[in-house]
Design goal:
- With 160 residues, this protein is an alpha/beta fold.
- It has six helices and five strands.
- The protein has a five-stranded parallel beta sheet with strand order 3-2-1-4-5, sandwiched between helices.
- The N and C termini lie far apart (48 Å).
- The mean pLDDT is 94.
C-alpha cells in the first residue's frame, strides 16, 4: 500500500522553507502531494497555475512528489486523493495553537487522517511567504530565500 501525505498551503510564493519541508516529508510517505489551497476571499500575489508551475520548477521531476490545487475542506481533499497524513510546518510556538485546532478538526472530519508537524531547518525558521513578498516588494534581494525561478517571478511581478 502506498502511503500518501499532503502538504497543503498557499505557497504564495514558495520559499526555501517550503522546499525543505517537502523534501523531508518524503521520509514519512511514499508519495507527497503538495496541495495549493485556493481561497476565493484572498488576493494572492500569484495565480494558482503560476504557483503550481513554480513548485514544479523548484522541486523538479521527482515522481514521488505531485502538485495539485484544491478548494474546500482539506479533509475532503485527503479522502479524494487517498492521503493518510497531513504535513504542516511549525516555525514558532505562535503557529501551534492554530495548527493544533486544524489538526483536531481534520481528525473529526476524517478520523484516519493524521497530522504530522515538522520543524524547519534552523536557518529557515524565520522565513515566511509574507516576509519574502515584503522584501521583494521593496526591491530587496530574495535570492537566498527562494528558488531562482521564484526570485525571477517576484522580480517580474514587482517590475524589477
Amino acid at each position: 500500500m502506498t502511503r500518501t501525505a499532503i502538504y497543503p498551503g498557499s505557497f504564495d510564493p514558495l520559499t526555501k522553507g517550503h522546499e525543505d519541508l517537502i523534501r523531508r516529508s518524503l521520509s514519512l510517505a511514499d508519495r507527497v502531494i503538495v496541495a495549493v489551497a485556493v481561497h476565493p476571499s484572498k488576493q494572492p500575489l500569484f495565480p494558482v497555475a503560476e504557483r503550481l508551475a513554480l513548485l514544479q520548477a523548484a522541486m523538479g521531476d521527482d515522481p514521488r512528489v505531485a502538485f495539485e490545487s484544491f478548494d474546500g475542506l482539506l479533509a475532503e481533499f485527503a479522502k479524494k486523493v487517498g492521503a493518510s497524513i497531513v504535513v504542516r510546518g511549525l516555525r514558532a510556538v505562535s503557529d501551534f495553537e492554530y495548527e493544533f485546532q486544524m489538526a483536531l478538526m481534520n481528525r473529526q472530519l476524517h478520523p484516519s487522517l493524521e497530522t504530522v508537524f515538522l520543524v524547519p531547518a534552523v536557518d529557515l525558521t524565520y522565513l515566511s511567504s509574507s516576509l519574502v513578498r515584503e522584501v521583494a516588494r521593496y526591491g530587496g534581494d530574495v535570492s537566498a530565500l527562494v528558488h531562482p525561478a521564484v526570485a525571477a517571478a517576484l522580480a517580474r511581478r514587482y517590475g524589477r
